[in-house]
Fold this sequence. Notes:
Elements: E1 5-10, H1 17-25, E2 42-47, H2 51-59, E3 64-66, E4 69-74, H3 89-97, E5 101-108, H4 123-152, H5 158-179, H6 191-196, E6 207-214, H7 224-236, E7 239-243, H8 245-252, H9 257-266, H10 273-284, E8 287-293, E9 297-304, H11 309-316, H12 318-322, E10 324-331, H13 332-338, H14 341-346, E11 351-353, E12 363-369
Parallel strand pairs: 1-4, 1-5, 3-9, 5-6, 6-7
Antiparallel strand pairs: 2-4, 8-9, 10-11, 10-12
Amino acid sequence: MIPVVNCGIVGLPNVGKSTIFSALTAVPVETSNYPFCTIDPNVGIVQVPDFRLDRISQIAATDRMVPALTEFVDIAGLVRGASKGEGLGNQFLSNIREVGLIAHVVRCFEEDNVAHVSGEPNPSSDIETINTELALADLQSVEKRLGKNARLIKAVNSRVRGEAIAMQNLLERIASHLNEGMPVRSMDLNADDMAHLDNLFLITAKKQIYVCNVDERDAEGKSDWVNSVRAIAESESSEVVILCGRLESEIANLEDVKERSEFISELGLSESGLSRLIRSAYLALELCTFFTTNEVENRAWTFPRGATALQCAGLIHSDFERGFIKASVYHCDDLFDFGSEAALKLAGRLRTEGREYAVRDGDIIRFKFNVSRK
C-alpha cells in the first residue's frame, strides 16, 4: 500500500489556513475575515515538487510524468474551549484525529481588516491555546481508557491482568504528561508503547510542523514573532516553515513556470514556501522517493525510510512483490552525472539487488518478477 502523506492544516480562526490551502491545492475555498468561515474540512491533492523527476524526464523522455502526491486537509479553526465543544470543537477535533501529520499555522502578521479571536496576534499565546486544547482532548481519551483498563486489572486471566497492569502504567504516565499541557510526541516512548496507543488516535502523538504565516515585508521570517515560534518548535524538536499566504496565492496564480520562478527569485527566495512545507512534511514522516522509468512513463513513488526492495515492489503492485526476482538499481545522481542509462551501465553503476536491499531516496529501480498464472 502506498504511504499517504496526509497533512491536516490547523490553527486558530483567521490565521490564513484556507488561504494557504487554496494556494497549495489550487482548490477554491471560502475565505473571510470572520471566525468559522470553514466548517466542513476541505480536502485537496497536491503534486510533490521534485526537480529530480523533471531531470529524469529530460534525459529519458516518455509519454508522461507522474509525480508523488500529498493530501492536505483544511480543518476549521479551533478556539479556547474546543476540547469542551466550544466553536464546534468536537467536530473539528475528530477531523484532526484522522490525519497523519499536523501543519499548525500561526499568524505572524498584523492586519486591521482581518479579525483575531483574541484581539491581536500573539504567536506564543496562540500556540499555547491550540496545544492545550489538543492535549485536553487527548487527556479525555486517556482518562476514559484508564477507567476501562482498571476493570481489566481485576480479571481472572493472568495474561489479561498482566497486560492491563502494563497498560495502566503507560496510560498514567501519559495522563500526567498531558495534564502539564505537553504533547505525547515529546515523551520518550518506544515502538511497543506507540503500538499500544494506536487505537486511542491521540492527536498530540502525531508529528507537527509549525507554519509561520508572515506578511510580505517579512518573507524571510526575521520578526520577533517568528523567532518566538522557532523557540517553541525547537523545544519540541518540530520543524518550522516560513511563508506568506498572500504571496503564495500570487505565486500559485502564475501559470507560466518561468514567470513563477522569476517571481520567487525577486522575493529573494530559492523556492516557494509551499514547496518547503511539502518537503518538511516528508521529512517529518520519514518518507522518501524512488523512481521508475520506462517507455510509457516516469513516475515518483513515496516509501517509508528503511523499506526494502521487496516492500517497494509491493507499492507498485502486489504481483511485483509476490513474484519478486531481482531489482536493477541505480541512483538518479549517477544518471545526471553520466547523462544516460547506457553510459552509467558502461561505468558499472547499474547494480542488481535482492529483496532485502534497503532502498535509498533517489534510487531508480526496475523490478523483475514472475507470477505463474493458473
